[in-house]
Amino acid sequence: MDEDEPTSATHTTAARLSVVRAGAVLVVFVIAVAVLVAVGTRPSVSTPSSATTATSTPTTVATAGGGSTTTTSSSHHHSSATTTTTTQPHSSVSVVVANATSTSGLAAHYSTIIGAAGYNMKPPTNASTTVPNSVVYYAAGQQGAALDIANSIGVKPAQVQPLTTAVPVPGVTGTDVVVVVGQDLATPGS
């Protein structure tokens, strides 16, 4: 029986070494993951030259609180960058829809669609002129909401523009997003 005791001591020492090795591997793994996450989330720093071409692809995802997260991926000739912007809840974004066509009821129709997503809708109105293509205008800080609204009604991201005095809708001062429904959306649901 005395012969079994050295074997038992050897097994106990080996078990302790195994636990220490496992702990060391775990610590190294955690450090490696932390380094990879830190490097992977760091924004790339590059200045595109005038010869490089850039393309942007925005993607908007609704979040649980009624807000949205917009991720824009820009791809340049030699590098690429991703920017993520989280917007406030829909209920805090004021929206007015203006009909810029000769078709009656479009502003009310699209107000109902946009309002169903929880936006703070102002009364629908008419634009001061007619336009062939719909445009979604946004105030400072509201680009994410404007892209979300444009996507929900079928307006292309290229037709989402900053809100200026050139908007063909009177009385929209203080409004976060102005949707001008053009002839391209004249058939409700298109």
Q: In the CATH hierarchy, what is the class of the largest domain?
A: Alpha Beta
Shape: rod-shaped
Structural class by helix and strand composition: alpha/beta
Tally of strands: 9
Spatial gap, N to C terminus = 88 Å
Secondary-structure element sequence? HEEEEHEEEHEE
Uncertain runs: 46-54
* Approximate helicity band: 25-40%
CATH topology category name of the largest domain: Alpha-Beta Plaits
Q: Return Rg in Å.
A: 28 Å
Strand proportion: 15-25%
Counting structural domains, the number is 3
The mean pLDDT is 77
Largest sheet: 6 strands, mixed
- CATH level-two architecture of the largest domain: 2-Layer Sandwich
Number of helices: 3
What does this molecule look like?
With 190 residues, the protein is α/β, with parallel strands linked by helices. The chain folds into three domains: 1-42; 55-86, no CATH class; 90-185, Alpha-Beta Plaits (2-Layer Sandwich). Helix content is 31%, strand content 24%. It is built from three helices and nine strands, in the order αββββαβββαββ. It has helices at 4-40, 106-115, 143-153; strands spanning 55-62, 68-75, 80-86, 94-99, 120-121, 125-126, 135-138, 160-162, 177-181. The strands form two sheets. Strands 4, 5, 6, 7, 8 and 9 form a six-stranded mixed β-sheet that branches. A three-stranded antiparallel β-sheet has the order 1-2-3, with helices on one face. A hairpin with a 4-residue loop joins β2 (68-75) and β3. The longest helix has 37 residues, at 4-40. The model is unreliable at 46-54 (pLDDT under 50).
